[in-house]
TrEMBL record:
All copies of domain Metallo-beta-lactamase, residue ranges: 7-189
Similarity-based family: Belongs to the UPF0173 family.
One of the record's GO molecular function terms: hydrolase activity
UniProt name for this protein: UPF0173 metal-dependent hydrolase H4075_07510
One Pfam family, short name: Lactamase_B_3
SMART domains linked: Lactamase_B
Keywords: Hydrolase
Record has Disulfide bond as a keyword: no
Organism in which the protein naturally occurs: Lacibacter sediminis
Length: 225
């Protein structure tokens, strides 16, 4: 499987020949200026919540690619108003099989509103059960609900926010990794804004001391996972 990082919390994972794009926020991100959003391919787009830094490019990419957008009910209704037609609504606790594998929606402790200020519904994370099971927590605080994650799937890797201030910081992300029994972590939601700038060497050292493998790919970089 290939993981491609597009900055902030936006990434793509190739699963069984299908491209899964998560939380598309690229064109407004100055750190992702080298990424041409018009070239990004997607068969599915998974949206964790409605904040602009997770959904800014969703409508444009969905219309251009015809990708199926997986999101909560409120985002589903909002996307319909934006002219997106290929959408599958879900909500916290729900599970659905798709051609690449199964998606289970998990609780995320955060907030959610849409770019026009309307209510964005429940924030979510996703457990994707496929050739290599993985968990994307979405924007969230550390929560005891994470103890339920490994009961749904044995994880090969996980994607967790590490930037602090608006989400878990790196110390809580390391605790989360142990809680979900997953030692390979890809860090996201950091460095994009002054509020969430991290000391990468310090963060990597903390994960290493805790027996965890933290991966911080560069924006635009693809890694085998």
């Amino acid at each position: 499987m290939t993981f491609t990082y597009y900055g902030h919390s936006c990434f793509s994972i190739d699963v069984k020949g299908k491209k899964l794009l998560f939380d598309p926020f690229i064109s407004p991100n100055e750190l992702a200026a080298n990424v041409d959003v018009n070239t990004i391919e997607a068969d599915y787009i998974l949206v964790s919540h409605g904040h602009a830094d997770h959904i800014a490019d969703c409508v444009a990419i969905a219309k251009r690619t015809g990708a199926l957008v997986i999101c909560n009910w409120e985002i589903y209704l909002w996307l319909q108003k934006q002219g997106v037609e290929n959408i599958h609504p879900m909500n916290t606790g729900g599970k659905k099989a798709f051609e690449f594998g199964t998606v289970k929606c998990t609780a995320a402790q955060h907030s959610s509103s849409l770019p026009d200020g309307s209510y964005g519904g429940n924030p979510m994370g996703f457990i994707v059960s496929c050739e290599k099971n993985f968990y994307y927590s979405g924007d969230t605080a550390l929560t005891l609900d994470m103890q339920l994650v490994p009961q749904s799937a044995a994880l090969a890797f996980c994607i967790l926010p590490i930037g602090d201030n608006f989400t878990m910081g790196y110390e809580d992300a390391a605790r989360a990794a142990h809680m979900i029994s997953c030692h390979t972590v890809i860090g996201v939601h950091y460095n994009t804004f002054p509020y969430i700038v991290i000391d990468e060497d310090k963060v990597k050292a903390h994960f290493q001391r805790n027996g965890l493998d933290l991966k911080l790919p560069a924006i635009g970089e693809s890694i085998n996972i």
